[in-house]
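User: I've been trying to design a sequence by hand for this structure and keep getting stuck. Would you show me what you'd pick, starting by listing the structure so we're on the same page?

Assistant: Good idea, let's start from the same input. This is the structure you sent:
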């Protein structure tokens, strides 16, 4: 069962925001998302939290400033998702602005796994670096940092993931979630952490008089398009600080001031950068970068983001686009197979879903787990072989509100000693490795936790909306106002709801329901993607608004999220 509920909104907060100059509906939307004062709406760069509060940031600046002075060889060790790729690009581009001798390494995820492992240190050592810089990883790399220290290689860890019981013995650790850090934005992405390190480095070099003779300071705002992309694609909560980073990055993109690789990715995705939105970053550019890490080598994505050669950037963007299409085909086949397996039972009988197939590709099991979670509203894990031997399997999980997935896996590891070889993650997503033969044992343990933790209400899907929208606001101009704001994880894009008459309905491409809806004297075009069941004569519809252009004329279209 799916319920449509309306977000609570404080009329007093909405009124205060409207007095500040916001459109009254936008003011209501912001108030419903917890914005209480006009200051929280501002997205000017000067309103960013200062780096001084980010624990380890000043220490990292000293490490980097000393390394620059000694002309030490630096090597960035990156992660293989979009946040890791953009963080790497920010580190490489930013430190080159300061004159660093720097390169990067992004290990193949299927061979080396996640984080700075001793094996990756051994691989990195071949290029004889004197300073390793981790981006979007490293906080749990106790053994890897020890291996680097044993080789006389210094390590600077920049990360945003939750730490374990023991921190690595690095020269400096920058992570808002490490013990004792008072930085207000705990949900900053890995790319944001690296950007802050560069801000602190510039401040340290100012103190050292590096720019006293009039030498130009690096313009770090030129990296904000990368910061915005990584922040949105990593699906971190868009708190006030993250909204500033994203808004400033989008501002640069819309004005044409972006890296050649970002421009090439917009072109490959057939998106107009002049009207760039968070949706474009999260659903068009991000998946094309992630496809490289999932199917091949993320170094292709990083090269796309770091090259200044427009032709090379376009060539790489086309390769990434092709990989994304391949990834979608693999995912579609896996998803179809997975859903076919589930046709024989009512998911209401189960609190969780666990699926495994020896033919699946481990690079896309997370996406399939997400699709299963969306379809059945159950915490879901999908498994694929970790290597050709098939002895070990990797699992990727996605969760629903009210079920902390990492905590659930942690509980299973305690209840079933030896079952899980390693795991990590957070509330809504997690990954683990175990013996293939133990998947049934995990399935039973996961279901047991689900039955203990999940109530009937938690297993009922709830769609939060912003309620009714007055007829006067179904205009392209109002859609432009919505698109100009920054929406995302923890600050969801507006979804409205209301009752409509269904004037006509027809299938498009045999899988999308195209609708003509009536309310009063107004008629609205609407489409419900990947839905084929017809609607009754009257329906309550939850929908988003988009602007649809045809022959140069802009019209409003409703994207249906749910109806009943």
């Amino acid at each position: 069962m799916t319920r449509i509920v309306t977000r609570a909104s404080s009329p007093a907060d909405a009124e205060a925001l409207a007095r500040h100059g916001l459109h009254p509906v936008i003011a209501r939307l912001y108030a419903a998302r917890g914005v209480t004062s006009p200051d929280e709406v501002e997205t000017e760069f000067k309103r960013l939290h200062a780096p001084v509060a980010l624990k380890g940031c000043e220490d990292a600046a000293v490490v980097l400033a000393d390394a620059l002075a000694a002309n030490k060889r630096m090597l960035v060790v990156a992660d293989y998702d979009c946040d890791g790729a953009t963080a790497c690009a920010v580190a490489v581009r930013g430190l080159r602005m300061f004159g660093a001798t720097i390169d990067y390494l992004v290990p193949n995820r299927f061979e080396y796994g996640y984080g700075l492992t001793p094996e990756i240190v051994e691989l990195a050592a071949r290029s004889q670096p004197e300073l390793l810089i981790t981006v979007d990883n490293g906080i749990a790399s106790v053994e890897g940092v020890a291996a680097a220290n044993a080789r006389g290689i210094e390590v600077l860890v920049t990360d945003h993931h939750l730490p374990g019981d023991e921190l690595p013995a690095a020269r400096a650790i920058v992570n808002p979630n490490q013990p004792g850090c008072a930085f207000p934005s705990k949900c900053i992405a890995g790319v944001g952490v690296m950007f802050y390190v560069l801000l602190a480095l510039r401040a340290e070099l100012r103190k050292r008089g590096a720019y006293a003779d009039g030498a130009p300071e690096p313009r770090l705002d030129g990296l904000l398009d990368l910061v915005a992309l990584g922040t949105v694609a990593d699906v971190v909560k868009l708190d006030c600080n993250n909204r500033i980073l994203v808004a400033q990055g989008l501002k640069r993109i819309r004005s044409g001031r972006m890296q050649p690789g970002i421009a090439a990715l917009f072109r490959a995705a057939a998106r107009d950068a002049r009207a760039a939105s968070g949706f474009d970053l999260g659903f068009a550019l991000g998946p094309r970068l992630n496809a490289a890490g999932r199917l091949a080598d993320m170094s292709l994505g990083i090269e796309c983001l770091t090259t200044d050669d427009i032709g090379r950037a376009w060539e790489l963007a086309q390769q990434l686009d092709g990989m994304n299409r391949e990834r979608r085909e693999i995912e579609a086949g896996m998803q179809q197979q997975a859903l076919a397996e589930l046709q024989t039972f009512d998911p209401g009988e189960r609190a969780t879903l666990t699926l495994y197939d020896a033919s699946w590709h481990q690079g896309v099991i997370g996406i399939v787990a997400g699709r299963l979670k969306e379809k059945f509203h159950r915490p879901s894990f999908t498994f694929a072989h970790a290597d050709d031997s098939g002895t070990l399997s990797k699992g990727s999980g996605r969760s629903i509100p009210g079920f902390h997935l990492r905590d659930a896996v942690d509980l299973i590891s305690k209840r079933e000693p030896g079952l899980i070889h390693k795991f990590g993650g957070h509330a809504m997503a997690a990954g683990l490795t175990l013996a293939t033969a133990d998947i049934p044992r995990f399935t039973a343990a996961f279901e047991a936790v689900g039955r203990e933790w999940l109530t009937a209400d938690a297993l009922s899907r709830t769609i939060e909306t912003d309620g009714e929208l007055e007829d006067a606001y179904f205009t392209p101009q109002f859609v432009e106002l919505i698109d100009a704001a920054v929406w995302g994880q923890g600050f969801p894009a507006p979804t409205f709801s209301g009752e409509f008459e269904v004037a006509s309905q027809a299938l498009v491409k045999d899988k999308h329901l195209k609708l003509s809806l009536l309310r009063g004297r107004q008629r609205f075009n609407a489409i419900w993607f990947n839905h084929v069941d017809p609607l009754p004569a009257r329906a309550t519809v939850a929908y988003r608004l988009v602007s649809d252009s045809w022959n140069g004329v802009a019209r409003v279209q409703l994207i249906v999220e749910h109806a009943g």
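That's my pick for every position. To get oriented when you compare it with your attempt: The chain has a mean pLDDT of 92. Residues 76 and 468 are 49 Å apart (CA to CA).
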